[in-house]
Amino acid sequence: MTTLKDLIRLVKELPEDSFEQAFGLMNSMKEAAEQVCATAPVLCVHCNKKAVKNGKKDNIQQYLCKSCGKSFSQRATNQPISQLHQRA
Ligand SMILES: [Zn+2]
Predict the structure, then answer these.
(1) Domain assignments of the chain as residue spans, ordered by start
(2) Residue 83 above 80 pLDDT?
(3) Which of 10, 38, 39, 73 is deepest in the core (most CB within 10 A)?
(4) 64 alpha carbon to ligand 1 midpoint, in Å?
(5) CA of 48 to the centre of ligand 1 (A)
(6) In the chain, what percentage of residues exceed pLDDT 70?
(7) Alpha-carbon distances, residue 5 vs 2, 17, 19, 28 (angstroms)
(8) What is the 57 CA–ligand 1 centroid distance (Å)?
């Protein structure tokens, strides 16, 4: 398996004219990841089921779980990185 360390080493070994191409590829990967984050459903921190937006409190998005009825704030969801890891 290729690790991030391997990838960084490979990128460093690239000839200069391939650098721009590699950066372009990484940029499009980043954009794709951001799109996934924007559309990923928020999961309940209590039961891991899908939750819905439930207004804002002190400018922090609140969510309500339809399954267990509990509410939680965006800060508790660890969004968006944890969602990406769950999808891998
Ligand atoms: Zn729940």
Answers:
(1) 18-87
(2) no
(3) 73
(4) 8
(5) 6
(6) 86
(7) 8, 22, 17, 20
(8) 19
70 Cα: distance to centroid of ligand 1 (angstroms):
6
Over residues 18-54, the pLDDT tens digits come to 888 888 988 999 888 888 777 778 899 999 999 999 9
| Assigned token pair, 27 | 């940029």
Cβ-Cβ contacts under 8 Å for 74 (sequence gap 6 or more): 42, 60, 61, 62, 63
CA of 53 to the centre of ligand 1 (A): 13
51 phi and psi angles, rounded to 5 deg: -115, 160
